[in-house]
Design goal:
The protein is an alpha/beta fold. It folds into two domains: 20-65 and 252-329, no CATH class; 70-247, 3-Layer(aba) Sandwich (Rossmann fold). The chain is 48% helix and 8% strand. Helix 8 (198-213) links the parallel strand 3 and strand 4. Helix 3 (47-63) runs antiparallel to helix 12, helix 6 runs parallel beside helix 7 (166-179) and helix 11 (282-289) packs across helix 12. The longest helix is centred in the middle third of the chain and has 19 residues, at 106-124. The protein is globular, with a radius of gyration of 23 Å.
Length: 341
């Protein structure tokens, strides 16, 4: 049985990644980077053309580039290795767990992994239009086993009768996954699973059952998964024995952080920005964002758009000072206890 997704655009231009239409739009997206004109030509543009050009730059800065960090590279490499090992395994398939604090790039990393897996599948099997190599879902708060199964069904576009029981949903999902050669299932926001409750434990068991029924590699992502109830008790022992952990963390001041800032600076399309001036502020940017890639991109996206709108066309410490960062980066750093002599 094959699933036919809605026509592109039928769900709007911002379809969610947790739907097949939205995921395929994300995978196919190749955002263009606007070129900078000679400054005099830009100034002399007619009002309409200049506004259109500036709108293109605003759109570019509102998303900026996905920077290939070492962690993203490790996750993509490990994910590809696991797919190869799991493809012919009859049992005991291994998975990947990405865990870390908020704003450290977990979702970016796992979605880039999924995008890479899907691109490789399409390259190897150019006639695989109806295949669904990757499924991406997020875990709802207080999720149950049936809710997990229905999230996968919703991604696939499967109609679920109101009175369908969990067994019916699982059987339908497994049938479609096998028919469409699903090779990876990404489960994001897994910290929403409350393993201290019966419903949470059943949801964990449902994920494990899917992993036994399907020749797919499961990728879990969430906050604090490596130190929470997910890995506690007999169920936790099973998860720990099957999953490879890749932690994400804030960057420390140093070469990797400076390289990250330089990569983002290289993607700016501002007319009066001086190359290298942002990299020179690497220590300042680390203090403002605590080394969190999500907070850094938040700050620089906002500041870049403001620089276009107010006509300054450059990023300096002065205008960065006037841009608020997210609440996580603004909060005072946790106190460290000084050991008593």
């Amino acid at each position: 049985m094959a699933v036919t997704p809605p026509a592109p655009g039928s769900a709007g231009t911002t379809a969610q990644l947790t739907t097949l239409t939205g995921w395929r739009q994300f995978v196919a997206a190749m955002p263009s980077v606007p070129d900078l004109l000679p400054e005099r030509d830009w100034i002399l543009l007619e009002d309409g053309k200049r506004a259109s050009h500036d709108d293109d730059r605003l759109e570019h800065h509102s998303r900026l580039v996905v920077v290939q960090t070492p962690v993203i590279g490790r996750i993509i490499t490990q994910g590809g290795n696991l797919i190869r090992m799991n493809r012919l395994a009859h049992y005991g398939r291994s998975g990947l767990m990405v865990s870390g604090p908020a704003r450290t790039g977990k979702t970016t990393a796992v979605t880039q992994l999924g995008k890479t897996v899907e691109a490789m599948h399409r390259h190897r099997s150019p006639g695989s239009r109806d295949d669904i190599p990757v499924i991406y879902i997020t875990v709802p708060p207080a999720a149950t086993g049936k809710m997990i199964a229905m999230e996968i069904a919703r991604f696939l576009g499967l109609p679920v009768p109101r009175r369908a029981n969990i067994t019916d949903v699982i059987e339908s999902v497994c049938g479609i996954c096998l028919d469409t050669r699903v090779s990876m299932i990404i489960v994001d926001e897994l910290h929403n699973l409350d393993m201290t409750t019966r419903a949470g434990a059943e949801a964990s068991d449902t994920l494990k059952y899917f992993s036994e029924r399907l020749p797919s590699t499961f990728v879990y992502s969430g906050i604090g998964l490596d130190r929470g109830a997910l890995l506690a008790g007999p169920r936790g022992d099973q998860v720990a024995g099957r999953f490879t952990l890749i932690p994400t963390a804030p960057f420390t001041v140093g070469r990797e952080w400076s390289s990250l800032v330089a990569a983002v600076e290289g993607s700016l399309r501002l007319y009066r920005h001086e190359d290298g001036s942002l990299t020179a502020l690497a220590d300042y940017l680390h203090r403002r964002t605590r080394g969190m890639i999500g907070s850094l991109l938040w700050l620089l996206r906002d500041a870049s758009c403001q620089a276009i709108l107010d006509g300054t066309e450059k990023l300096t410490r002065k205008n960065l000072d006037h841009v608020a960062v997210d609440m996580t980066a603004q909060a005072p750093p946790p106190r460290t206890r000084t050991p008593k002599p």
